[in-house]
Amino acid sequence: MGRIGWLKMNTMKIYLILVVNMVIWGFNVPFVKIIVEHVPPVTATSFRILIAAVTVFLILGITRRVRLPHKSEWGYMIAGSLTSIVSHHFFLSVGLTQTSAMNAGLILGMGPLLTVLLSMLFFKKRPTLITALGFILGSTGVSLTVLFGSGKLQGINLGDFEIFLSIFIQSFGFIIINKASKTMDSVLLTAYMLLIASIFLFVVSLRMEPTGLTTFVDGFSDVWVVFFLSAVLSTGLGQMIYNYAIGQVGAATASIFLNLNTLFSVIGAALFLQETIKLAHFIGFILIVTGVIMGSGTLETLIRQRQKKKVESQQSVKASNH
After folding, report:
1. Distance of alpha carbon 264 from alpha carbon 268, whole angstroms
2. Is 24 in contact with 242 (CB distance < 8 Å)?
């Protein structure tokens, strides 16, 4: 098999890994819903993230990639942890106690689009027409999900708002993490942020849920399988796999697969929680996915790549003719 054939096969393996990872991430939404229905949400989240941190550190230790952060890295690392992990998982776990996993999965699908929009705001970049249309479509999809997700018109649910807040704050955190990852391995950065987040959330849980630890131990036997699947596979290994895939196929290509995360969260909610897929969920999914592809820059990147390949192909033909 030639080099080109080997590269194509290797790329297909990465694509398969990304699809499996999106299944894991998508199913994590109903998994977290199951967990917070049996044990205190904040206490459970602190231990779930701690196990994820231990998992990542163990793998980094085996591959000898662990080092202490430099003084200049601590600020970004703590800020990134408080936004993209602490606040995100706090509002996600609390929000899931008040809304459906299906609604949550669709709202979380706005993540890539919100990250791009916040980046444009902070770096004062004007959105293109395609980006603006993408934001409108994505926002319309979320609005339909929130207002008609129960099958009839309803007001904005507090849980839906908290889920949106979780993904909004996480998107803001990604901008901070981007600065820190310029000097630190992204996986090592993730491990430290998970550890910091678990400690911070545990302290918060002692205040918010005084009997949370006892209740968590009592109810843990009912959800231990789901708990470890969520902690080790999704929160721990999932992020490592995604970071690896970005290094192999590029951020733009990898981000396309994030849309499958939304799809599998809806499927997972139907499979594990017997939640009903309403027409609003279906229409919302189509609008959100389309909006993310357009608004995140994925569509424009793919168009540029196709044009570049076309030009290179034409130049190759001209060169062979001469």
Report:
1. 6
2. no
Residues in the chain with pLDDT < 70?
A: 1-9, 149-156, 178, 180-181, 247, 250-253, 255-256, 296, 317, 321-322
Give Cα separations from 97 to 93, 101, 160, 200 (angstroms). Answer: 7, 9, 10, 21
Structure tokens at 184: 């630190």
Contact in structure between 167 and 107 (CB atoms under 8 Å): yes
CA 234 to centroid of chain Cα atoms = 10
What is residue 257's three-state secondary structure?
Answer: coil
Return the exposure string of 309-321: e unless at least 16 CB atoms fall within 10 Å of the residue's CB, then b: eeeeeeeeeeeee
Query: Whole-prediction pTM value?
Result: 0.80
According to the model, what pLDDT value does residue 4 have? 44
d(CA 211, CA 315): 70
Residues 33-62 as b or e (16 or more Cβ within 10 Å = b): bbbbebbbbbbbbbbbbbbbbbbbbebbee
How far the first Cα of the chain sits from its last, in Å, is 29
Residues 259 and 286: their CA atoms lie apart, in Å, by 10
Q: Which amino acid is at 131?
A: T
Nearest to 27 by CA among 184, 260, 209, 239: 260
Gyration radius of the chain over CA positions: 21
For 63, other C-beta atoms within 10 Å of its C-beta total 9
3-state secondary structure 115-141: HHHHHHHHCCCCCCHHHHHHHHHHHHH
| Whether 42 contacts 93, CB under 8 Å | yes
Q: What angle do CA 175, 181, 185 make, to 5 degrees?
A: 150
Rounded Cα gap, residues 77 and 97, in angstroms: 29
Domain boundaries, the chain: 3-321
Longest dimension (CA), the chain: 80
Q: For residue 39, how far is the Cα from the chain centroid?
A: 23
